[in-house]
Amino acid sequence: MLESKLQKLKDMSSEIRNLEPKSVWNSFADLNAVPRASKKEEKVIAFMKAFGEKLNLETFVDEVGNVIIRKPATQGMENRLPVVLQSHLDMVHQKNADTDFDFATQGIEMLVDGDWVKANGTTLGADNGLGVAAIMAILESTDLAHPDIEALFTIDEETGMTGAMGLKGGLLKGQVLLNLDTEEDDEIDIGCAGGIDVTAKRSYKEEEVPENVVAYKITVKGLQGGHSGMEIHCGFGNANKIMNRLLFDGFENFGLRISEVDGGGLRNAIPRESFSTVVVDNVHHDAFALEFNQLAAEIKKELKHTEPNLKITAEVIGVPEKVMELGVQEGITRAIYTAHNGVYKMSASMEGLVETSNNIARVIVKDGKIKISCLTRSSVESSKLDLANALRSCFELVGCQVDFSGSYPGWTPNVDSAILKVLKLKYTELFNEEPDVVACHAGLECGILGQNYPDMDMISFGPTIKGAHSPDERASITSTQKFWSFLKEILSNIPHK
């Protein structure tokens, strides 16, 4: 059994390593063999440090854990502006509920499906692993033209951007920064949203379960999930909001009492699953089942175009020992119903750009404690705080303590950027079409890095990646080839000093 599984993994790896460009995919396969969850990057930091040292390149780790590797310019490129190639080492660790996988010890199991590289029931790590792999390929290369390069591999981008925040000014010498963390290959990013974590907490009394009840495990699963910035406008279902809708008014109608709720995961991933344990009065058993199935059918009908695989079930289980106190139950279900989720405001200055949004990412009700975690994003600082305060007010009204944390700035677009002119010209020459110059609703590190390096000319681009932050994450093979040719062309055409 073990031997067959190892052989399967070997075959998967071999298929990936034979894709073009081999230098990028081989680096990606090496990287994906290393566990690299946000805030648990010790192994990948050591991996990247050893990689640079093996190439006999100047390599060091700064005081927060970012890895910097310097490579001198190739012959004839010494008079070009020095370049920082930047990507983040950490990845979002998410898996399907029925996937047996240990992110702490296992490498990502990859497979090829047509034009896509996917993972076997987990996130792939193409965000931002393909950017890291491309930089590794540049550092290893012996025949690619480029100016002086500083490879900057930041940590903890996905859960706080503390690597970018902790990078000291004066450490980098580059004058142009190429961030390789954009996920549509026809886009050139010149701006992004900032963000802030909004966390509501409160305690509650646990009460004895009433007599003459039947218990249910309610499950919401099969949602697409995805990136809470790049895909917040897609109309995908939020498992936490759906679960709350199923529980709302349950006491008034059926004597429903909540024992536990466990929904969502990481703050930057749209919640795909939620589970709750509840009890209802025996006398209302049949009525509850009938109305639950009707409501579940209505929700699935509403979301049939965006969430065709949504599953909502209620399974009879053993009666739990405790339920939450009724007053808190009624208040918190109303607060979650009221709290804004999704797009809050569209940009007035850039057509089609989401300006402000919120993701109700995590809801936990268990053992006398409630915790609700949100990520609020905006490209306008005042609008970000406006929505954060609206959420704060909503949850404070039901007795929660609300904390703001992890605030980071957006990246203000510079339409006169010199490196932008190079990218637009070379993209048009290579692909016979003009790129889309955009700002995105995701949180790129450029805004943070720009605080300590205000004169650095920054740009972001990358290969097409779909479903980031979810087990449906996939990277386009042909797009990666396109991205690689574009990156090489840019490096050979960096402006003169």
From TrEMBL:
Hydrolase in keyword set: yes
Pfam families assigned: M20_dimer, Peptidase_M20
Domain Peptidase M20 dimerisation: 219-306
Domain of life (superkingdom): Bacteria
Keywords recorded for this protein, A-Z: Hydrolase
Protein name: Aminoacyl-histidine dipeptidase
Gene: pepD
